[in-house]
Amino acid sequence: MVNFGLINEWEPTPGRLTSWVASLASVAEAGRAPKHPSPPSHQQEEYLRTAGRNESAGFRFSRLCLVAFDFHTPLDVDAMTRTVNTFLRRHDTFSSWFAAEPDGTIVRHVMDPAAIDFVPTDHGVKDSADAIRLHVQDETPGPFSWDCFTFGAIEHGSGFTLYAAFDHLVTDGISSALALVELLQIYSTQIQGLPSGLAEVGSYIDYCARERSGSAELTLESPHVERWVELVRDNGGTLPTFPLDLGVSSSGYARTAHLSATLFSEADAERFATVCRENGAAFTPGVLAVAALASHEFTGKSRYFGLTPKSTRSTPAEFSSIGWFTSLIPVPLTVEESSTFTSIVGAAQQSYDAGKELTDVSFHRVMQLVEPDSGIDVQPGWSVPMVSYIDVRKLPGVDVFDALNAGLFGNRGSSEEVFLWINRFNDQTSISLLFPDTDEAHIAIKLYVDRLTEIFTTIAGTGDYSPSVAALAS
User: Fold this and answer.
1) Is the separation of the CB atoms in 285 and 450 below 8 Å?
2) Which of 248, 291, 295 is nearest to 415 (CA)?
3) CB atoms < 10 A from the CB of 72, how many?
4) For the whole model, what pTM was predicted?
């Protein structure tokens, strides 16, 4: 099982810290990098604009993603230096940086990957996990810096812990897992003097160009744009919100809190999957059907507007690439008082399949197209509740995660909504949530997780679930 949480929950063993950051010559070379015709992805552009609007937050507003895992052999600094540079030069997302022009346009600059040079620095012994966590966050620049990623090794006993910290600008969840496996593979071959044997990777820059080329052809009359607009209008012209009060005010910032718990055993997960299959659905639509039932119970509303992330990787090489290859797809569902899980999960599958047709139509692009009198009220920097299912068993190299004490962590940032992940491992299925760190949200999340757990376990145990709206929505 992979450790998951916020960086302040990462408990690295204290020891001698060596970190790898960009050399001064490399930073200077990046600064001279010419403009590139490929813009950032729509998601990257909005992320950068949001980060820019919140530069005065007083803390790192942008997301920092950290992967960490253990080696049970002594650290070879030279081999790790070659590993880090091989990794960075291999993925062209690390060759890019972005700047805002005077007219507000976000422009990409691309440097020669051969000029990327990360060098080691010995920081001596760090005697606490707090000191290590502080170092990582202080040393890793924000998204408007080219070098918004750092690496480090903490030596302890006969082994060491390796970490890689990336600003979210250059990575997504799948990429973080790929980075962990790839760094392990490169280092293992470097210390043996062997070829890495890594698969060919695709170009994230080319992916962004392809996305922009497709979105440039969209108009308000494009069927997929019309579908997005229709869904938001049906939701009162706004995006969905979490079904319980999170205590988030319109002014100020709420930092991020985290909760992870075991949802059920692998035996129960397989029984839940069986119920889904018997009713014409896969696991992901089953998860969304459960979320719809819970929302109905808490609000009494019959319309559920779900959003779930979908990978936008489309070529074999892109499935080995590091980058932000995701979009949100809509999964609306109707839940009546007489509905049960088995009566709606087939419809959830159909809604999910229809939503997948919108994978390559960024909602950010839709918002660029809608007119002020469209009846849609969505503000810049919008945030929505997200429900995600990941079958971790299918990720490359997952079999070694346990042995390596692997972990994925994020900074506390700012939080306005609830992000929920259902993660299926070999022995259990877990639930993890990031949410606003308010008293109201902690109470709401406890109620919500308890309800989801009851729904899932009831379906696994009895084969169905009937909501009890009166008890919760009154």
Assistant:
1) no
2) 248
3) 11
4) 0.94
- For residue 474, the model assigns a pLDDT of 45
Pairwise CA distance, residues 99 & 470, whole Å: 53
Domains and CATH numbers, the chain: 3-207 (3.30.559.10), 221-395+413-473 (3.30.559.30)
HSE value, Cβ hemisphere, 13 Å, CA-based, for 327: 21
CB-based contact 154:16 (threshold 8 Å): yes
Q: Which residue in 368, 159, 391, 416 sits closest to 286, CA to CA?
A: 391
Q: Which residues face 3 on adjacent strands?
A: 407
Spatial distance between the Cα atoms of 256 and 249, rounded to a whole number of angstroms: 14
User: How many other C-beta atoms are found inside a 10 Å radius of the C-beta of residue 474?
Assistant: 6
Handedness of CA 52, 54, 58, 60 (dihedral sign): negative
pLDDT of residue 469: 61
Burial per residue of 348-358, b for 16 or more beta-carbon CB atoms within 10 angstroms, e otherwise: bbebbeebeeb
- CA quadruple 313, 43, 163, 429: dihedral, nearest 10: -60
**pLDDT value at residue 111:** 98
CA distances in angstroms from 354 to 258, 347, 362, listed in the order given? 31, 11, 15
Which residues have CB under 8 Å from 270's CB, separation 6+? none
First-to-last alpha carbon distance for the chain, in angstroms, is: 39
Output DSSP code: residue 183: H
DSSP category for residue 8 = G
Task: Please give the C-alpha separations between residue 381 and each of 47, 234, 313, in angstroms, as whole numbers.
Answer: 8, 21, 24
Rounded Cα–Cα distance for residues 139 and 54 (Å):
20
pLDDT at residue 472, rounded to an integer: 55
Query: What residue ranges of the chain have pLDDT lower than 50?
Result: 471, 474
The residue whose two tokens read 């920081």 is 123
CA atoms within 13 A on the CB side of 452: 28
| H helices present in 191-340, as ranges | 204-216, 223-234, 266-278, 283-299
Q: What is the 3-state secondary structure (H, E, C) of 408-450?
A: EEECCCECCCCEEEEEECCCEEEEEEEEECCHHHHHHHHHHHH
Pairing status of strand 428-436 against strand 419-424: antiparallel
The closest alpha carbon to 362, from 397, 324, 392, belongs to 324
pLDDT value, residue 57? 87
β pairing state of 106-110 and 35-36: antiparallel
Q: Would you say how long the chain is, in residues?
A: 474
Q: How far apart are CA 60 and CA 99, in angstroms?
A: 18
DSSP designation for 107: E
Token pair, residue 166, equals 């990336």
